[in-house]
Model the fold of this input.
Amino acid sequence: MAFRAPIRIASGGSPSGNTLGIIYGINSASMAVLGSLISLVGLNVLNDNTVALSFALFLSALISLPVVLYTGSLINLLTRKYVFTIGVFIAIFSNLLFMFDLSITFVLANACRMAGAGLMMMCISLYTMDFIPRKQLASAESRKFVFAGISWLIFPFVGTWMWVNVDHHTPFFLSTGLVSFLIMIFWWLRISEAKNIKPPKSGNLHFIKNVRAYFGNPHMRVAYLIAVARSSSWVVFFTYGPIYLRDAGVSTQWIGLFMGAIMAVLIFSSRFAAFAQYFGIRKTILFSFLMAGISMIALGLLPEPTIWGLLLLLLASLGFDMLDIIGNLPFMRMVTPKVRVEMTSVFSTWREMSFVVTPGVSALILMVTDISGLFLVLGSVLVFAGFLSRTMPIRVD
Done:
């Protein structure tokens, strides 16, 4: 008697947009638990010193950077699924380090957290480009962010509430449980390597050579700038947003609820994607940068942290969210399958680059001003990036 193969195998190991969305959503949940906590944990360990917090995050990013820089070589050696698995185990190890409540383990835990997230996100991006047709990328990206939006709506509050009311270690156990569940789902799905992607030649995996090739293309430079600018916005949002809310009088246990509510707009990402498809990717990116930048400038001009600043944070986050949903599309639509791994290994460093540059620059800014001054600088950078994005080619639309 013949039996039908399990659904996960019958599809030939080719994930759909929904499958990738579920993987992305579970990964987002494991990170969202700690999303509002990292800066609060850091301040607790570093005696409430925001400059020391910025330098600690800067050092963590420097430590994690080499891991992601050579992810392309690692994928060629081990394939995507094993690199993804390594990323998961690094993330689990980072949660264990966070529990020691020491300044050195805080730096190392953040380094592992960034490295693990970088490996997993690069693999998810490659799977998306491998298996999703070019014309369906926008809808696939929006579905990923619907799942992410649900995670970011719920888990930041769960994390901060547990940290205050249960135990300082409980959120890290929860994050470990979620990322462990992620790797079980990932291997159960048995995602195959794409048949249309040939392993790159060993000579093409030299990172410095790939950097020169990547940044030799002016359109790729703009795509990288868009990614770094939006990621830097989130670094500022999740590092200094909770501090701003605390200074505005919001109780620590409710900070995650506020942050999650602001992130909840990701649930409507399909509407945003339809908006972008109708008006054009380039115009939508420009609009998103301007909305986020002007909102952050207005937030920085407020005389002191107030609850009204939440409205400006919400408005800015709408721009951040839109950039998250469509910000990778310029790169995805311009890169060719022939050099996909090589170019993605460079492009994927936008996360680590923002993690390095943003805390380092923030530490320097906070030496001479306060968080409001930092918001002003970020807003100005976003407005500049918006106008620079107008140089992208028409084929991005």
